[in-house]
Amino acid sequence: MVLLLMKVIAIVGSKSSGKTSLIERIIPHLSKYGSVGAVKHIHAGLVEPKTDTKRIYDAGAVLSIGTAEGRTLVAAGEYRLTELLDELCSRGIDFALLEGFKSEAELPKIVLGDIKVDNALLRYESAPDANVEEITQLILSLDDYETLQSLIRRVKSHPGMADAGCVVTFTGIVRRDVKEKGSVMAIDVEKYDGGAESKIGEICDELKERGGIIEVLIHHRKGYTKVGDEIVYIVVAAAHRAEGFKALSDAIDMVKEFVPIWKKEITSEGAGEWVLGEHDPRRGGG
Predict the structure, then answer these.
(1) For residues 120 and 45, what is the distance between their CA atoms, to the nearest angstrom?
(2) In the prediction, which pLDDT does 110 show?
(3) Is 37's pLDDT higher than 90?
(4) 106, 110, 134, 286 — which has fewest CB within 10 A?
(5) CB burial class (10 A; 0-12, 13-18, 19+) of residue 264?
(6) 78, 172: one domain
């Protein structure tokens, strides 16, 4: 089974709730359907702190890699979760299992115990109680987690790519705007149910009708997004760069103007204010 996209789920719970042991049980089941990667949120420092690889990193190396037969250890600076997921996707990983990350509101989650989190899809009292087959079927049914790399892979799989001369991309990130009520530190993005994805599809179809445009894919993330986080991706395959860049620029403007998405800006003063687009249905009045 070859997947072009990646499915992501977080296993969360209190300390010593058995998250790692549950992931160990899930991996053999998921591996029947594709490759599995994992990211662990570590609270007690880097893995294997006494290794030479860690010592070299602590001496000032930006990146330190230790490798041996069948095993590689990497010590590096902090990465955003989106960057780590991009790395898994670029390696062709089909399923990403995250241990921890309970504060990431957008992530679907399997919960061990009674902790309160957003987007909990399954909950078990403890790891031994977890039904791994039920979990596997849930993961297979999840929406695909889009990254820039996953969109590029999908575009490159298009049957018309033999006629392409370029693939051009746009990545929008959350900017720290200065407002009267303080600097914007994060935004909470909501999509109009059904309408947002439908409009995005219409924009892609309209752009693909242009001469020389082979494929257009757009993805806008939702949920809580911090300053510096990636929020929108656009990928265009075209016969020539001039056509590609023109379609890319127009796609950015069309998403901003026509897609029913609204954003709540959260400032350094704790204030939150909804910013509605021109065509947002919540404006009323048609």
Answers:
(1) 27
(2) 96
(3) yes
(4) 286
(5) middle
(6) no
